[in-house]
Design goal:
single chain; Pectate Lyase C-like
Length: about 210
């Protein structure tokens, strides 16, 4: 199979569920293309044009996306772990729940991008003020809940399992009753009571006068 698709115009094509891992897509036009669930691991997409492309749940681990244009692209749930996004333009892109761990984000443009719950642990190339801004917009660094959505994080990841545990035990009151029941079921040895049926010694015999 020819893995060199560089400089091609594939705009609007349906390439969903395809395996294009390690393909050469340098300067390829993929504007508006359907790349949902497509495997692009290790692919070279330098200078590629992916404006408004559908990349939901796509796999782009270790992909080369330097200077790629992804304005308005949908990358919801996409896996870009270890990808090189140096100078990439993701203006207005949807990166909700995307995995950008250990990615190179030097010079990336994320103006207007939706980064809610995007994972950026270990990513490099971002200035401190950019990191603070992304945290406020919902991005997650170092496995911590985003600064701007603490309540949502608690509602999504903490409260449901806690509520399920409490309901399974009948709530807090049920848990308390169960604990008391377990404590009361521990047997306590009864005190020893002298038996009322102990043998009575025979009466002394009275001597008969002669």
């Amino acid at each position: 199979m020819n893995k060199d698709l560089s400089d091609r115009d594939l705009s609007g094509d349906d390439l969903s569920n395809h395996d294009l891992s390690y393909f050469n897509l340098t300067s390829t036009k993929l504007n508006g293309s359907n790349l949902r669930f497509t495997k692009l691991n290790g692919a070279t997409l330098q200078d590629a044009r992916l404006c408004r492309a559908d990349l939901r749940e796509a796999k782009l681990c270790g992909a080369q996306l330097s200077d790629a244009k992804l304005t308005g692209a949908d990358l919801t749930g996409a896996d870009l772990a270890g990808a090189n996004l140096t100078g990439a333009d993701l203006t207005g892109a949807d990166l909700r729940t995307a995995n950008l761990r250990n990615a190179n984000l030097s010079g990336i443009n994320l103006i207007g991008a939706n980064v809610q719950d995007a994972q950026l642990k270990g990513s490099t190339g971002l200035a401190e003020d950019s990191i603070r801004d992304l945290k406020k917009r919902g991005a997650i660094f170092n496995g911590t809940p985003p600064g701007g959505s603490d309540i949502k994080w608690w509602m999504q990841y903490v409260i449901p399992p806690l509520a399920a545990a409490l309901l399974g035990s009948g709530g807090i009151l049920g848990f308390y009753k169960t604990l008391n029941k377990e404590n009361s079921s521990v047997s306590t040895p009864a005190p020893t009571v002298p038996s009322a049926t102990q043998a009575t010694p025979p009466p002394k015999s009275t001597p008969t006068p002669e």
